[in-house]
Amino acid sequence: MFYYLFDFLDKQFNFPGAGVFQYISFRAAMALILSLLISLVFGKHIINLLHRKQVGETVRDLGLEGQLQKKGTPTMGGLIILSAIVIPTLLFAKLHNIYIMLLLLSTVWLGAIGFLDDYIKVFKKDKEGLTGKFKVLGQVGIGLIVGVTLYFHNDVVVRNRVHSSGQSAYTIEVENQSTQLPSMPEYSTEDTKSMKTTIPFVKNNEFDYSSLLSFLGDGYQKWSWLIFIPIVIIIVTAVSNGANITDGIDGLATGTSAIIGVTLAVFAYVSGNRIFADYLNIMYIPNAGELVIFISAFVGGCVGFLWYNSFPAQVFMGDTGSLALGGIIAVFAIAIRKELLIPILCGIFLVENLSVMMQVGYFKLMKKKFGIEYAREHRLFKMAPLHHHYQKLGMHESKIVSRFWIIGIMLAVLTIVTLKLR
After folding, report:
1. φ, ψ of residue 321 in degrees (nearest 5)
2. Is 168 within a domain?
3. Domain tally for the chain?
4. Which of 39, 126, 348, 387 could serve as 84's disulfide partner, Cβ 3.0–4.6 Å?
């Protein structure tokens, strides 16, 4: 909203300083600061409100150290994060941008599903919460909306590279010295609908989903939505659930999400900037730079929430936060066409998800072969998800979180390095 206000003041009245709102970097910084303030200042009030409403966590005794002490800790704190994301985005982003609209919708949609789940657990005293099939149905629903929008909307485009027949650089003379500067990026001036995405570690690293249907013959491109939309649904559901599973000990999901958010901000900025996109030889996506404002608010909200969520946690985000965080990361990565980097960037979420799947699969196999007692005594992990396995080994949860963060930072750096490592 501020963007439109100051744009009007700048154009109509030449208001001093109003032009600074044209810069993505300035608006991203403002969104980051405001999101931090919202989560830090208003977060305390929300926690007190949750205390008064007795919105406390119900804890099952799983034999983990310090677990029972968490009983009664306010949950549904994801409301803090969601507020810290939505409010700065509404104030500082261009709201007519299709990517911004899609991310706001995804945030509210998944936050509402998580809120309903938490509400059933807390107020209806049903430990199971929202039935799994309804939760998945909600995730599939937003995945379908995202996939259809990104495929069919006219503003979701890329610009292809073109070969220049002229000079690739030009020379200027400064203080009697000649300096050669690169030419402007060689991109088409026409926006193009495309199903291309980025493949890591591959030179000329663009892959077109429609090519998977080339066996259909001429005109196969018009059927590429049959591939693209299901992939979007799978990614949104998987990453959302991955973040939900990771949210098991104080600060783990929040800190990991913040690290991922910083990395996505880098990718959004370079993908939406013609000069950086050309230098890095990556896909140029018009209007994607606006997403930096959204992801800055995302990072600020996560970091601010850590003030209260770090060990010992004063509040838990609950499904209200965790489902939304994972979904936001998935939709954001798809929007900037970096979804194939998710297994690296979201490696923590992936491993946590896999640990549960492996634990369940191995248990069923051992039960079938040797019986229930043998299966219980010979589990693959002492407990799943993986962070609980380390708790069972006697490691303090703050050390587990710190080490997972370090791994998350390493994966984030590796993800950024893929811009040049091909």
Report:
1. -95, -45
2. no
3. 1
4. 39
Which sign, positive or negative, has the C-alpha torsion 228, 234, 238, 241? positive
- Report the largest interatomic distance among the alpha carbons of the chain, rounded to a whole angstrom: 86
How many whole angstroms separate alpha carbon 329 and alpha carbon 294? Answer: 11
> DSSP string covering 45-62, please?
HHHHHHHHTT-B------
Residue 175 domain flag: no
Print the domain residue range for 290: 2-160+219-417
Query: Is 193 contained in some domain?
Result: no
Place of tokens 């069919």: 152
Alpha-helical (H) ranges within 124-156 are 132-152
Establish if 114 belongs to a structural domain. Answer: yes
Per-residue confidence in pLDDT tens, the chain, 422 aa: 888 887 888 888 888 888 888 899 999 999 999 999 999 998 888 888 888 876 766 666 566 766 666 777 888 899 999 999 999 999 999 999 999 999 999 999 999 999 999 999 888 877 778 888 899 999 999 999 999 999 999 999 887 666 544 445 545 444 445 555 555 556 665 677 888 888 888 777 788 888 888 888 888 888 888 999 999 999 999 999 999 999 989 999 999 999 999 999 999 999 999 888 888 888 899 999 999 999 999 999 999 999 999 988 899 999 999 999 999 999 999 999 999 999 999 999 999 999 999 999 999 999 999 999 999 999 999 999 999 999 999 899 999 999 999 999 999 999 999 988 87
Question: How many residues make up the chain in this entry?
Answer: 422
Query: Between vectors from CA 217 to CA 216 and to CA 218, what angle results, nearest 5°?
Result: 130
pTM of structure: 0.90
